[in-house]
DNA sequence: TTGCATAGTTACAGACCGGTAACACCCTAG
DNA sequence: CTAGGGTGTTACCGGTCTGTAACTATGCAA
């Protein structure tokens, strides 16, 4: 898929999807609204009829990303209903797959790196959405019967976050190759300790 | 320290130092050369006499950062001469201190997030410099008599990298608070396995 | 005193940025 | 058939960006 996403759907959806793709590939400040609308097969006026500013478009893109991530969690539950430990391992596999998907890190983290104004609207939603994801992982670990669920969840999440930026800086052949091994080792090690 | 770094040194040094500071705080694309030269107490022509482009200035800033990081490693050796394990613990403490220093992550990682063109000159030096740092940590772990030195070094480095972006996204009260605990636990655990 | 390298000043080029105004077009609902 | 909302088109605004030209001022060294 190049930048030209011009399926026939409603302009707002095309703009949102195209912006998500282009922000991901080229960064937020690396893409202008003209380029987005052109790739989406529409024009600037239509964009500004649906989004009051580029900043609002950015926020909506981040929310759309989070929604997609939420669907991922639901897929784990659907695939291994009730088996929380299996879902945790599925999370590890999915995370590893994302590392090899492309060399770009987490869109939220990248956005946070670019948008430095402390009160930028995007910063609030990033914080909020990241907090949700953290909580989901903590809950999963706890429900999987792991003792220090918060500590394991936070460790896994830091490892994953670190692996994503590592891929972005040194490439997929760097430290991130060991991610699955690290994560699985941690889970084993935490399961060995006293469970709830 | 605000953005105005106007000590009386040679213009090139002032520009480099000011650019480093401003790139760190506001991101690379968030700072123009005009703003840099003004904060450095000089002017655009002088900048372009010393650096052939903004891209070259960026690269020089990253190299300066790496040099500062190199000095940090030398400080460990100076403080605990020959005691590699103590140096490893010093690295953990230093890393934790950097987490609480300010809410901005690693300049190299941030630059990689912003500069998405695959053949951007900065991407080469980022890769090169990150590789050097990785190797230093691996060597330190190995010389500290740890068995799976590469695995420990890579795990610690992913944890640290992840903690830095976590601070940038959810703040210093997020998962990164557990960094020292995680790192120390890992070192203990790896020392328990067969050593070199 | 002369000569030269370094640095400062002003102005500008050319491109791109986010955002808006005014107006013409279509499609569909009534 | 008609009215109106969503869409497309063109042109524009003011601002900022990197990078350069032409010229002046400064300080040091022979």
TrEMBL record, chains A, B:
Coiled coil location: none
Key word Membrane present: no
Molecular function per GO: DNA binding
Every HTH tetR-type domain range: 9-69
InterPro entries, alphabetized: Homeodomain-like_sf, HTH_TetR, Tet_transcr_reg_TetR-rel_C_sf
Gene3D superfamilies attached to this UniProt entry: Tetracycline Repressor, domain 2
Matching Pfam families: TetR_N
Signal peptide annotation: none
Entry keywords, A to Z: DNA-binding, Transcription, Transcription regulation
Ranges of the DNA-binding region feature: 32-51
Protein name: Transcriptional regulator /TetR family transcriptional regulator
Organism per entry: Rhizobium loti
Organism lineage: Bacteria, Pseudomonadati, Pseudomonadota, Alphaproteobacteria, Hyphomicrobiales
